[in-house]
């Protein structure tokens, strides 16, 4: 399968801390890949490196054959930051239309994105007056508005109603079926089962990179939470041995 | 056009904030009215001070608004996200410059109109030149605000930049002590502060019916300072951060 994102020997330092130390992975095109790991494990830093806003110490990040953050990628990549990065003093529709205009798209594209995240009824409301979950979906609308080939989503389903969460995952699956490469970070393990592939990351190191079924098989359990724990323990034993 | 939609976006944000609009439009007019009563019976003094203030207020207001607005872009993550899109640094810098410049034009027109027609302010030159210089000063405030926001991490810090950037320019611009009467080293400082030139340009309009060479030179210096501040501001906008 064709590779959409390739990370090789990536080292990122933030302050005195080395967040990613020689991290490598490859993400195939047209898949939903789950990036799982505890808070502080380097998920956001990896995503920032892929979208090209993170200063890196060494290594390479290649997206669709171009260096991460290079000009040709800017119209082909969508990024949802963990904290909703939309203008609180604009309405949902105004936010989506502004981000659409950056890709030279019209209001119809913006409205379609607002519909896709289930905010049709709230489109005229100021983002400041929305609930946390709605705000996060407004931000998601701005990330998908350009129908990017690569979509990087940092915890898109946090705080969402279970029904909506299910709908959002259906949406991600549809995007992948249409050829979009989706990278989703999460720490909810039941969402991990809906991914084509999983990247398990802890302390800036890759613990597993496989399909959910293979990860569970490797750990000898049917529960992903348990599988994650087993893999970490196994790695620690190797490290101390 | 990304620049046009950025200008529209910033103006829409302003439109959703009627209190800020009211402050932008009304506050300078109120303060000039206050001065009118302070200097009642001394129309010459009022003319001079009100004319200077017509240049100073837009500078202060736009400096504050811009530094907070830009700081918000940085702290809420919208700036980081914008840098993953095809937006250019200049789209942002000029977007803010043009949007807030338009707001400043409304502000200066209302304040100057009120000073001339309601408070009997008189100048030898025309109101159009006064507004032109006031708007140039406002855009200077926008450019310096964009630059200073890079050095503030919080809104608390951003507000502290106002006395640092505004007060010395106000004290040394010739309003309180004529520049020629200042000690040499103070004059030297005054000479490198852009507001000294906008105040001198306004004074020229106050004294001469036709635009003078000094006025055009001063205005050119102010425009030059705007360009320098914008270029430095662009240098502080980094697509990649630590």
Automatic annotation (TrEMBL), chain A:
Keywords: ATP-binding, Nucleotide-binding. Pfam families: ABC_tran. PROSITE patterns: ABC_TRANSPORTER_1, ABC_TRANSPORTER_2. CDD domains: ABC_DR_subfamily_A (cd03230). It comes from the Bacteria. InterPro entries: AAA+_ATPase, ABC_transporter-like_ATP-bd, ABC_transporter-like_CS, P-loop_NTPase. One of its GO terms (molecular function) is ATP binding. Residues 5-228 form the ABC transporter domain. This is ABC-2 type transport system ATP-binding protein. It comes from Actinoplanes philippinensis.
Automatic annotation (TrEMBL), chain B:
Its main location: membrane. It holds the Pfam family ABC2_membrane. It is found in: Cell membrane. It comes from the Bacteria. Residues 15-240 form the ABC transmembrane type-2 domain. One of its GO terms (molecular function) is ABC-type transporter activity. GO terms for cellular component: ATP-binding cassette (ABC) transporter complex. It is a multi-pass membrane protein. Keywords: Antibiotic resistance, Cell membrane, Membrane, Transmembrane, Transmembrane helix, Transport. InterPro entries: ABC-2_transporter_component, ABC2_TM, ABC2_TM_bact-type, ABC_2_transport. The chain crosses the membrane at residues 21-39, 51-71, 92-119, 125-147, 159-177, 219-237. GO terms for biological process: response to antibiotic. Belongs to the ABC-2 integral membrane protein family. This is Transport permease protein. It comes from Actinoplanes philippinensis.
